[in-house]
Design goal:
alpha/beta, 9 strands, 7-stranded parallel sheet, globular, single chain
């Protein structure tokens, strides 16, 4: 892994709450925040995978077992964190994973647990913490989306749908919270060398031959590109830390050249299509004066 230059240091008094901190972006972000002198509430479904951070960073890190689909557990962790470890300044909704397969191939038993984690878990964690953020009149929420939350791909329809939901929710939430002194940033990585294509990726069991040239390409991509992605996770988490330190953070943070290229290509295509159908679009209104 290529490392970036000196990490961006958060204010030492800043307190982070990070979901899905056992691996990937969540784990690396927690480590970098703690190394820079920040404090972190680190959560994972299996506390054994994050408890070591308490030992490495005594007085800075506190580990909790948290399954974001367990709503009573969310309430308990947020209550304990805010009562015992001070105000939460940054919430990072990082827990999530992907399911690959054509829309027809993926069963409800495969896609619903992903929605419960990626969408409804994020919503519940956010709702649990919002009263505390409103009371203190400050804070920053980082919602981990993906370039897949802006640009859809065959074979990732359900994952795309979950991340498109995060995008819409976050965009509205940002407008609701801005007058209250609370920032929201949607983080949209392209391909990075995390375990997304490996341990965190789920393949639909059902395979329909007719989708071999579309969704089938995504299955092959998972197998061929795991560990070869261009994105450097360390640089990505430093970018997230820089956003939190910024007095004017963006609503959206694209990460990686691939994400930028894919969004620009989609935007150009959309503009052409809108222009081509503009007269039909405008013709759907009542004529002036009616």
């Amino acid at each position: 892994m290529t490392t970036s230059a000196t990490p961006v240091s958060p204010q030492k008094s800043r307190n982070w709450l990070i979901t899905g901190a056992s691996t990937g972006f969540g784990r690396l972000l927690a480590e970098e925040v703690l190394k820079a002198g920040g404090k972190a509430i680190v959560t994972a479904r299996n506390i054994d995978k994050v408890i070591d951070l308490e030992e490495k960073f005594p007085g800075q890190a506190k580990a909790f077992s948290l399954d974001v689909t367990d709503y009573p557990q969310i309430a308990s962790v947020v209550a304990q964190s805010t009562a015992s470890y001070g105000p939460i300044d940054v919430l990072v909704n990082n827990a999530g994973y992907g399911v690959a397969g054509a829309v027809e191939e993926v069963t409800e038993d495969e896609f619903m647990p992903m929605f419960n984690t990626n969408v409804f878990g994020l919503i519940r964690v956010t709702q649990a913490l919002l009263p505390h953020l409103r009371k203190q009149g400050s804070g920053h929420i980082l919602n981990l989306s993906s370039i897949g939350g802006l640009v859809a791909s065959p074979g990732m329809g359900f994952y795309n749908a979950s991340k498109f939901a995060v995008e819409g929710l976050s965009e509205a939430l940002a407008q609701e919270l801005a007058p209250l002194g609370i920032h929201v940033t949607i983080v949209e990585p392209g391909p990075f060398r995390t375990d997304f294509l490996g341990r965190s990726g789920v393949m639909a069991e059902n395979v329909i031959p007719d989708y071999e040239k579309t969704a089938g390409n995504m299955r092959r991509y998972f197998a061929a590109q795991d560990g070869k992605q261009k994105g450097d996770p360390l640089r990505a988490v430093h970018a997230m830390m820089a956003v939190v330190d910024s007095p004017n953070p963006p609503l959206r943070l694209l990460l990686g050249a691939a994400a930028l290229q894919r969004l620009r290509a989609k935007t150009e295509s959309q503009q052409k299509e809108v222009a081509a159908w503009e007269s039909t679009t405008l013709g759907a209104d009542f004529p002036e004066g009616e």
